[in-house]
Design goal:
The complex is a heterodimer. Chain A is an alpha+beta fold. Helix content of chain A is 16%, strand content 23%. Chain A has three helices and five strands. The longest helix of chain A is centred in the middle third of the chain and has 8 residues. The radius of gyration of chain A is 12 Å and the shape is globular. By secondary structure, chain B is of the alpha/beta class. Helix content of chain B is 22%, strand content 27%. Chain B has a five-stranded parallel beta sheet. In chain B, helix 1 runs parallel beside helix 7. The mean pLDDT of chain B is 96. Classes of the chains: A alpha+beta, B alpha/beta. Chains A and B meet through helix 3 of A and helix 7, strand 21 and helix 8 of B.
Chain lengths: 104, 404
């Protein structure tokens, strides 16, 4: 089990659990105010936008060009913006902290 | 009083309506009646990850099963609704149950167009619409099997790409003189045809299927030009139509689909409809249209939930779609007109390019291959109804953000 600390769109802190191999989006879309993930993880819609806490940012593969370009068009983008459908969880992500970005 | 929203259908639009109702703090009962045995699932992966064997069926679920319990959403599977009596606000199911509603939401989706040709009932002649269809088809798409895909639209081409990835021999048969003629611009269709051919897929245009041959199982697909293609499996993908036959004798007005306005309202006060089954009005376009897409299902589901919970929202989202074939991601937004000016951005030989359609200098559509940025910019430009300089749009050294 990989524990993840999430701040959702209501500003509430939640602790959720994922498994190795899950994509973060698949966990975050279960919330009432979680990510929408319209395209289901094809890196096509940019509706699963999160901010990854600084200390965790380096523990994922870097964003590819598609992800970077999609994020570049989001009004709420920050330096630590990622699309959660591109973040695959592994054992080293136990304790991960992310914030769900505001709706565009 | 217990206010009940009754949702007919358990696909993307149905699930979205239910989820959005709970997000909007709707406190009444939500009952979803689905004809299939599954929890609501995503259809796009069926022709891709499912057929390629990289996903198991349960990964397609839109939400985990617990979600519905946690949100007090009741799902009944395997239920076919046969009639609606709008005078008393009740539906009748195939097993004779009568269920009343305070609001009815029709999300019955679309149904397959089927071929009526000799041999079409042979084992091996397959369609792909449901999760069960995909699970049944997947093991048949093994290395070395000969697959004939009937229909060169999105489903057909995605199946062809998946089958080729699995090592099948693949032929695509299309009756028209180009692939994806209904919605893709010719340059996009030609690019993807070449991509398929480079992968070893045989593409036969202007070719009509006349029937299927074989003793018990399929052995050949017969063409009208008198020749035949040896085949182990034929996958027929010749489009869908709104599933509205069951509404024929009720008072809900239908055309090609359930007729709804820009608020997803039907002609009956407490009856709404969303998704593939609708023939709908869009704030920014004249006339009515039927759109089979995830975006349309989600967008309209949200509108219905807003209307029921007392927020006046209208349907004004830019329509968008996507497809994946091999390493090509096609993303499209907007609804281009037939006479629109076409501006190409990027060189198709690079494998990344886009086409913008413009009407009086305003973008109406964007179709992008491996060009996410063009797609995103195009979608925003269409939404803003922005006036753009076609010459600048065509120059890849101009940052599209400058045009916004």
């Amino acid at each position: 089990m990989i524990k993840i600390n999430v701040i959702d769109r209501d500003g509430e802190n939640r602790e959720v659990e994922g498994q190795e191999g899950d994509r973060l989006m698949e966990i975050l879309r279960e919330f009432d105010w979680g990510v929408e993930a319209i395209c289901g993880g094809m890196c096509s819609c940019a509706t699963c936008h999160v901010f990854v806490a600084e200390e965790w940012a380096g523990k994922f593969e870097e964003a590819d060009i598609d992800e970077t370009e999609l994020v570049d068009f989001l009004d709420h983008r920050q330096g630590n913006s990622r699309l959660s459908c591109q973040l695959e969880l592994s054992s080293e992500h136990n304790g991960l902290a992310v914030t769900i970005a505001p709706e565009e | 009083m217990n206010n009940r929203v009754l949702i007919i259908g358990a696909g993307q639009a149905a699930a979205q309506t239910a989820m959005s109702l709970r997000q909007a703090k709707f406190e009444g009962e939500i009952l979803i009646l689905g004809s299939e045995s599954h929890y609501p699932y995503q259809r796009p992966p069926l022709s891709k990850q499912l057929l390629q064997g990289s996903w198991q069926a349960d990964r397609c679920l839109l939400r985990k099963a617990e979600y519905y319990d946690q949100h007090d959403i009741t799902l009944q599977h395997g239920i076919t609704v046969e009639d609606v009596d709008t005078a008393v606000s009740a539906v009748r199911t195939a097993n004779g149950d009568v269920l009343s509603y305070d609001w009815l939401v029709i999300c019955s989706g679309s149904e397959l167009n089927r071929l009526d040709l000799p041999g079409c009932g042979l084992d091996g002649v397959q369609y792909l619409r449901t999760l069960d269809d995909a699970v049944q088809l997947q093991p048949r798409l093994q290395q070395g099997r000969r697959i004939v895909v009937v229909g060169g639209g999105y489903i057909g081409l995605e199946v062809a790409a998946s089958a080729r990835k699995n090592g099948c021999e693949v032929t695509v048969v299309e009756v028209l003189d180009g692939l994806m003629k209904r919605s893709a611009l010719p340059e996009i269709a030609r690019f993807l045809q070449q991509r398929h051919e480079r992968e070893g897929v045989a593409v036969l245009l202007d070719t009509m299927v006349s029937g299927f041959g074989g003793e018990h199982a399929l052995a050949a697909v017969h063409l009208q030009a008198q020749n035949s293609l040896d085949a182990d499996v034929a996958v027929v993908g010749i489009g869908v139509k709104p599933a509205i036959g069951w509404l024929a004798s009720c008072a809900v007005a239908c055309g090609r689909g359930v007729l709804v306005d820009e608020r997803c309202r039907t002609n009956i006060e407490n009856v709404y409809a969303a998704g593939d089954c609708t023939e709908h009005v869009h704030v920014n376009y004249a006339g009515t249209r039927v759109l089979e897409s995830v975006q349309n299902a989600i967008g309209q589901g949200r509108i219905v939930a807003a209307q029921i919970t007392g927020t006046d929202k209208q349907y004004d989202e830019v329509p968008w779609f996507w497809s994946e074939q091999y390493d090509c991601r096609l993303q499209m937004a907007g609804l281009p007109g037939v006479d629109d000016e076409i501006v190409q951005r990027g060189d198709s030989r690079s494998g990344s390019f886009s086409l913008f359609s413009l009407s009086d200098g305003r973008p109406t559509g964007v179709q992008a291959i491996n060009a996410a940025k063009d797609f995103m910019a195009g979608k925003l430009l269409i939404a803003k109804n922005a006036n753009v300089d076609a010459a600048r749009l065509a120059r890849t050294e101009v940052d599209l953000k400058e045009l916004l």
